[in-house]
Specification:
Number of helices of chain A: 14
Oligomer: homodimer
Pfam families (chains A, B): GAD, tRNA-synt_2, tRNA_anti-codon
Helix content of chain A: 25-40%
GO molecular function (chains A, B): aspartate-tRNA ligase activity; aspartate-tRNA(Asn) ligase activity; ATP binding; nucleic acid binding
Largest interface: A-B, 123 and 123 residues
Subunit structure (chains A, B): Homodimer.
Strand content of chain A: 15-25%
Largest sheet of chain A: 8 strands, mixed
CATH class of one domain in chain A: Alpha Beta
Strand order of the largest sheet of chain A: 6-9-10-22-21-20-17-11
Protein name (chains A, B): Aspartate--tRNA(Asp/Asn) ligase
Organism (chains A, B): Bifidobacterium magnum
Number of strands of chain A: 22
Chain lengths: 598, 598
């Protein structure tokens, strides 16, 4: 389907078969060079570049970068020695006999030309400028590739799901607020003044209703909305590949999801070997100081709590002492260790104790505070060699492990061990059912009003061993849930869901959600469970994050066509924006319910 | 992938190969019958039904309709003469030796059993009840088929688009308000108090930006939002298959769309012959009194303006007189013709003149008001036979034609000519560029502030002949736009878009949209057009309507998993609903801009 009203071929359709033939091409002027009265145009279309030769000055004169042109001409081989091996069409050029300017371009706010491709990203303007002129930014081949990659991902995932008997179902966007731990975006309902819809934080309850409806295998590339403060790399709207199955257990869902992941990675040219490895949540925390461990490299944490149990060093008289080895770190200059202290403070720690194992056996750093015996056995205990250093953390188990986990990743990053084209997957399984609601290290908003909140969400099934007792010992109760991790990113997660109203009631009780509140917020789900709800389980993949990992880019904004900037602003369109008084009146937000109540 | 933790097979996996083998099945108790101490359960899963035989009373006792059960047993052939030919698995039954109740069901608010399948729809409860218990309504096989059909449609369309080189791109939902003729749903932006996002009425401007971005072929199954009063069969959120192409003209888009339509209909088992017929907008109005003519039957309107040009009948001394034949209508009783008068008044007409051509040549009805000559030639002029009747309309051309067009369809409906399994497509082409803004027959909200508004939308390209003069003669200017019609429904429409800012400026001028207003509302698109916008064109298909036509159902609510009821209410979840004072405060809707302004 290359042939349209404006072209007979795309740029990369030009091959030996077309030499000597007339073609019509259309696209953008990527670059122009002039030699001896002849203009050489790199013509760019969605497939790539081709060189157009214009030896008529009148024809060539008006052409500037990013002009849109239609070129009629004849294909020929480039003169001997002039081929460009970096270009798919580098052997050919089109000698133009007619050039029509379809649209002009004003002076560009920044350079778009593919010639920039091999130059560093620092040539790019600020992200604010890139977003303001997103339509120019998207013309860059790197962005074109990201957009195409994302489209291919969807195709691959859908094919895999289709083969496994899934039905794609669209769920509504304007729904009832659901309790999933973040703030809702809300939409005033003009026809029911004073009432609002919420945009879904996920289709969680709707997909559970689909299971009750007998749609046994559901999926959707679902848009989700969370009105959070814009930290780090979050977007107010994001996409997840949402999947749910009836009459399955955890193993069924994990096996299904592995097929989907394999298909997605294959669509980008990467092989994934199944089954994927697994690690328990406890082991992930103990060995990697993270519930989403990066397994592209080793260097696990070493627990030294026992080792230092009688230590004279006050700082290490703590519930947990652990360490991570800094390979070859012994010779690190003092000021770099000082910089590590700053780094640690930015991560909320008081500092970062370290010891250097010098050649010849000398120990530097905090080792002077240890007992003789502790010094003597330390290198062997942590598994270091002479020439290495080691960082320590001591304090509560969880906060110390999280700090060491961050150190471990930062060491690998500085050592250049984080290859974006290597993918290390792992399932994390055996999560606790609940967590403390008041954990200051936790960003999530607590669901409910007790000291406990859900580790995943309130619809997560307790594991079989805990069905009868989870409410007696919420601290230790485990759930049937699972996260999928790639390169230190949680790219998805799911759980077996509660399908019995008696279990759901008990979970809500632990969370401190009253029957009235439950009925008000999701009584429809509890009601649905009364009419024959099958056992069901599901998973969702964070689509933007998966795309960014596969594209090898740091920010999800580089795999979203029109992302928001900080604060939810869109520098391109100016959204959000004030509305008129008339529009406001129509929304019904100023409706006074007291006027209608008696 | 039938095999999961709860089953070895689905119901319809049971074939001769499994006779004598042990199976585990899971699903719902569709119906239970008891004969001589043996219980016969129709077990229903997502593939269909299978009979389960339970001859253990204790095992059978608890089972009620819609209980969820896991059955272990042995497949056998049903006894001679007991096979059920209406059932795919009717030759077999499973003799249960273990039945596990996975979930119970309370007494049902209405019957779900597939036994209802062949009974009339009048057995269904009210739509309000169906929507309140949507998860039960969706278990009915008719609804399961609709949901599956919709999923298959998407698969087929995506495959066709993929083969034609399209890229799927997700565009944002929280955008800047765009001027497309309906009311926006709006979302308060907490982080920019007093500012709002709008939900897209369509991705129109965003897909045009994608064309400027060099994504030459875009598609998306896009959710769209219009805050309209809930008339007829509209939903506040709906889906369209949105497509746009660069470097194409009208013919390219129509050829592409035909491939997509063919693929969609094939996915439901219907063959579509290409190319599809075409009719101009003028011819559609003249012959069928509709811009979306139903071509499953003939019986075109007959224009009689000339015929009655010297008539003594005052009512027919009008700018337009036309007629439509009522085949065999001469013998219709008087009270039925009276009922047609009521029907006409409901359609906004004063009445509906008619003449009956009686056997033997006598004319009844308004014929007595005609001249002798008019009476003599009338039957031949309208193409009727003795025994037929004819309805007339006289007045303005457009309103008369629309009335006759409605009569034509109503006659066909009453004659049983509207076969839902026959599909008559036509393109409607050569639309006017503008229409009168103050047309009382028109539901659309005018875009702009002049006497003219856009027939499609303000971004529609004037046809080549009118590029230079459309603003001098807006009444007659034509556009490059096209609708696709099936069985009297507009199932899609599109146009060549304006890609030059000078033409866009002139169109906005005709619409009475000032430069300031234009810049405020979609300045970003006009700005984008300055940097090399390619010629582009597109089309969108109304996905819910297409699904309802293919499913053979009257309402789009029957092809949407969770539709809204009247007034935008969801009887299932109770949305929309009040929000808390705290939530309201957080939205920032009560922010007073004066406090910050100087």
């Amino acid at each position: 389907m290359s042939q349209t009203a404006y072209r007979t071929h795309h740029a990369t359709d030009v091959t030996d078969d077309l030499v000597g033939k007339r073609v019509t091409l259309s696209g953008w002027v990527d670059r122009r060079r002039d030699h001896g009265g002849v203009a050489f145009i790199d013509l760019r279309d969605s497939t790539g570049l081709i060189q157009v030769v214009i030896d008529d000055e009148d024809m060539a004169r008006p052409l500037r970068n990013e002009f849109v042109v239609e070129v009629e001409g004849t294909v020929r081989l480039r003169p001997e020695g002039n081929a460009n091996d970096h270009l798919a069409t580098g052997k050919y050029e089109v000698v133009a006999d007619k050039v029509t300017v379809l649209a002009k371009s004003a002076a560009l706010p920044f350079q778009v030309s593919t010639a920039l491709e091999n130059e560093t990203e620092t040539k790019l303007p600020s992200e604010e400028t890139r977003l303001k002129y997103r339509y120019l930014d998207l013309r860059r081949p790197a962005m074109q590739r990201n957009i195409k990659l994302r489209s291919n991902m969807a195709k691959a995932a859908r094919r895999a799901l289709d083969e496994m008997g899934f039905t794609e179902v669209e769920t509504p966007t304007m729904i009832k607020s659901t309790p999933e731990g973040a703030r809702d975006f809300v939409v005033p309902a003009r026809l029911v003044p004073g009432s609002w819809y919420a945009l879904p934080q996920s289709p969680q309850l709707l997909k559970q209703l689909l299971m009750v409806s007998g749609v046994e295998r559901y999926y959707q590339l679902a848009r989700c909305y969370r009105d959070e403060d814009f930290r780090a790399d979050r977007q107010p709207e994001f996409t997840q590949l949402d999947m749910e199955m009836a009459f399955v257990d955890q193993e069924d869902v994990m096996a299904m999801a592995e097929q989907v992941i394999k298909a997605i990675w294959e669509s980008a040219g990467y092989e994934v070997t199944l089954p994927l490895p697994r690690i328990t949540w406890q082991e992930a925390m103990d060995k990697y100081g993270s519930d989403k461990p990066d397994l592209r490299f080793g260097n696990p944490l070493v627990e030294l709590t026992d080792y230092f149990k009688n230590t004279p060093f006050r700082v290490f008289q703590a519930p947990y002492v652990g360490a991570v080895v800094f390979k070859g770190g012994a010779s690190t200059p003092r000021r770099q260790f000082d910089a590590w202290q700053d780094w640690a403070r930015q991560h909320g720690a008081k500092g970062l104790a370290y010891v250097q194992f010098m050649e010849g056996g000398e120990l530097k750093g905090v080792a002077k505070n240890f007992s003789e015996e502790e010094r003597a056995g330390l290198r062997e205990a942590v598994g270091a060699e002479e020439g290495d250093a080691v960082f320590f953390a001591a304090g509560s188990r969880e906060s110390s492990q999280l700090l060491l986990g961050a150190v471990r990743v930062e060491l690998a990053r500085r050592a250049g061990l984080l290859d974006p084209h290597q993918f290390a997957f792992t399932w994390v399984v055996d999560f606790p059912l609940f967590k403390k609601a008041d954990d200051p290290d936790d960003d999530d908003v607590a669901v409910g009003h007790s000291q406990w909140t859900s580790m995943h969400h309130p619809f997560t099934m307790p594991s079989k061993d805990w069905i009868d007792t989870f409410d007696k010992d919420p601290e230790h109760a485990m759930s049937d849930s699972y996260d999928i991790v790639c390169n230190g990113n949680e790219i998805g997660g799911g759980s077996v869901r509660i399908h019995r109203d008696d279990i759901q009631d008990r979970v809500l009780d632990v969370l401190g959600i009253s029957e009235d509140e439950a009925n008000d917020k999701f009584g429809f789900l509890l009601e649905a469970f009364k009419y024959g709800a099958p056992p069901h389980a599901g998973i969702a993949l964070g689509w933007d994050r998966v795309a960014s990992i596969l594209a090898g880019v740091d920010s999800i904004r580089d795999v979203i066509a029109f992302p928001k900037a900080g604060g939810g602003r869109d520098p391109l369109t100016g959204a959000p924006a004030p509305i008129s008084a008339e529009q406001r009146a129509e929304t019904g937000v100023d409706y006074d319910p007291d006027e209608d109540e008696d």
